[in-house]
Design goal:
The chain is an alpha/beta fold and about 220 residues long. The protein contains 10 helices and 8 strands.
Amino acid sequence: MIPGARLILLGRQGAGKGTQCVRLSRHFVVPHISTGDMLRAAVREGTELGVMAKRVMDQGNLVGDDIMVGIVRERLSQPDTMGRGYILDGFPRTVPQAMALDEITAELPLDVVLDLDVPREMVLERLSARRVCRDCGTNYVANGSEKHPWICEVCGGDVMHRDDDTPEAIDHRLDLYEQQTSPLIEYYSEHGRLAVIDGLGHPDEVFRRLTASVDAARRPT
Ligand code: AMP
């Protein structure tokens, strides 16, 4: 049986992170914890968190660290993640979030932090054409030739264009990534837990690189 895993997948939005996270979660049989999906669910449910998050997300800004850390702390205390592990997608996004995560995971540390590396110029176009399944989180890049563009090929769920995928919000999010999220690369490489994965190429090949890197990180030295 394939062992579980405790992973973070970092990377610019549009790098193919969401799709690879879905695949990794199936491969290692662990929950895919996407903080963006959790916030979008709160928006749909119209909770207090959702109303606040929608405003912040539509502007392409980040939700406050304390709120995000609280959400993730709660999720990582559930039996499924305590047992087999998890894959974190979209968290941490700032150094204070990473520090809080270190404290949350002190007893069961991460196996490895993967950075899916795709240059900024390459992701802009992909993001504008991005569609995402509301139910299973599979990402698509629309090219106009789809037979059923709004039905998910994986689970049959509703495929949607994200409200925050406007050119202005995308550009702003990529700036925020450089300012607030890219310092995480240094943070994790200093702690010796980072593996940088080339995100260019066929998605199957990128997936193979990701799983090989997780396996290598877990091999006893
Ligand atoms: P994502 O689906 O990961 O692109 O997240 C969509 C939006 O949710 C982001 O642009 C942020 O506004 C918000 N968000 C998701 N995760 C976080 C986080 N860890 N910290 C702050 N804001 C977040």
